[in-house]
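S1.2 Input.
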Amino acid sequence: MRRIFSIIFILILFLFIPLQTFASDINTTDKLITVDTSKQMLFAWENGKITFQTSVSTGLPQTPTVLGSYKIYLKYPTQEMIGYSEVNGHYDLTNVPNVMYFYQGYSIHGAYWHNNFGNPMSNGCVNTPLQVASWLYNWAPVGTQIEIF
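S1.3 Output.
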């Protein structure tokens, strides 16, 4: 009886106490990219260790970066990005470098039009410095896991 009570108690703890995932708790041997939107930081993981980290610019409050688990599904060395945002108005950016799409039109890519990394600046994409974008593009193949929180 005492054993059953202990098991039930442990189960209740797991059900009602929320568990948080922190970047330092990730355990994988595969390549992985994590983006911490609250800290505006990107981490590249390999063999369970952070191999690279950088400041980034994620989406503005009105155009947030999507949170969740994704995989890189398409890569372009350069791409023209044309669109409209209620926050930024019309934009037409030619030769956006090292574009890695992970969900619908959301991507990680280089940004030559600002140098304000560490602060939200984008329409939802993850902006990186140009040298970082090049390194990530060459390091991460299609299928690389991305966790955004």
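S1.4 Remarks. The mean pLDDT is 86.
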